Amino acid sequence: MVAKFKREYGSGVNGFTHLGQNYLEVQRSLIPNLLRLLKDDEQFDYCVDITAVHYPKREKPFDVVWILYSFARNERIRVKTQVADGESIASVVPIWATANWLEREVYDMFGIKFEGHPNLKRILLPEGWKGFPLRKDYGILQQDDEWVQINLGIESGQ
Known about the structure:
The chain is of the alpha/beta class. The protein has one domain (2-132): Beta Polymerase, domain 2, CATH 3.30.460. 24% of the residues lie in helices and 27% in strands. The protein is built from four helices and seven strands, in the order αββαββββαβα. It has helices at 2-9, 31-40, 99-110, 145-152, and strands at 13-18, 21-26, 46-54, 62-70, 75-83, 89-90, 114-115. The strands form two sheets. A five-stranded mixed sheet has the order 1-2-5-4-3. Strand 3 and strand 4 (62-70) form a beta hairpin.
């Protein structure tokens, strides 16, 4: 499968296995096409999760990771790409409906926008919340004191 994608996309795709898990590292621009091929041609019919990892010192500080499962193959694959701060990535909701809430969670926790998402808004935190709690530059004790004061009428619990 990796050889097939490398023939089609060249250096834009790199595959490896780590601790028994298969990974594809993919250029951001190739993500929509490659994920569509994984679903349609390779039978990865279930999007288990979408998450991100923040590496603040990198030029492109975010990895967005799709964890996919094929019932027919009984196989998982992780697909990841790097994203710059403020850069959006194509939504995969048209490919897997389950991506809807998963993309909203990544947006809510990391601030990564998914272009073409049908309703991209916070899912866990209130709309007025400032910051993105899973970024490594968001202090562990930090919270939006202004929001807590205005909406809850209390001082910070920290």
